[in-house]
Amino acid sequence: MQKLQFCSGAQPVMRVFKTVLYKQEVMYVVLVHSPVNDELLSERPLLTDDPNSVCSYRGGCFIWRPEAMCGTHRCELVLRPDENQVGVRNVVSYPQFYVWDHVAVALHVDRQMLNFHSARLRQNLKYCSRAKPSIIPRYRFDDFPEAKAILMKLCPKTPSPSK
């Protein structure tokens, strides 16, 4: 979408925007922009094809290698601002907990609007079952029939989803 709407057919540029650390979550933010804005956004490092990086960019494809998908941890993050790094220290006095990581994509479109065709969005919409272990209470999660009813109320002209 962005390639056609904002990049005049050229490949969009991907850059490392930031990493955000929460108590039990790590969010990697990737900035995507048109090559026209290279100079404006050049202070952010390019996303490269580094096999040791959590996020990389190879042959026009974004690659994410999640790290936090392993069991529980008894660690805490140690900030080292003088070295512009973060480390980990084992702590035995804390209870075990899971650490999640995910990627957020920030699209730089200046003052324009990125347009998505509703049929294409609907075609790519899929229902996800509740995860185990669940991170939200059961009453806040819609099962498939409830989710389908909400979708049909919001988009009555679209075909009924089967999955």
Outline the structure in words:
By secondary structure, the chain is α+β, with helices and mostly antiparallel strands. Helix content is 13%, strand content 28%. It contains 3 helices and 7 strands. The protein has helices spanning 2-6, 118-123, 144-154, and strands at residues 13-21, 25-33, 55-58, 61-64, 75-80, 85-90, 100-107. The strands form 3 sheets. Strands 1-2-7 form a 3-stranded mixed sheet, with no helix packed on it. A two-stranded antiparallel sheet has the order 3-4. The protein has a two-stranded antiparallel sheet with strand order 5-6. A hairpin with a 3-residue loop joins strand 1 (13-21) and strand 2. The longest helix has 11 residues, at 144-154. The radius of gyration is 20 Å and the shape is flat. The two termini are 25 Å apart. The mean pLDDT is 81.
Features:
single chain, 163 residues, two-stranded antiparallel sheet, 7 strands, 28% strand, flat
Low-confidence stretches: none
Distance linking N and C termini: 25 Å
- Count of β-strands: 7
**Average pLDDT figure:** 81
Largest β-sheet summary: 3 strands, mixed
Based on CA atoms alone, the radius of gyration comes out at 20 Å
Strand content: 25-35%
Category by helix and strand content: alpha+beta
Layout: helices, strands, pairs:
Layout: H1 2-6, E1 13-21, E2 25-33, E3 55-58, E4 61-64, E5 75-80, E6 85-90, E7 100-107, H2 118-123, H3 144-154
Parallel strand pairs: 2-7
Antiparallel strand pairs: 1-2, 3-4, 5-6
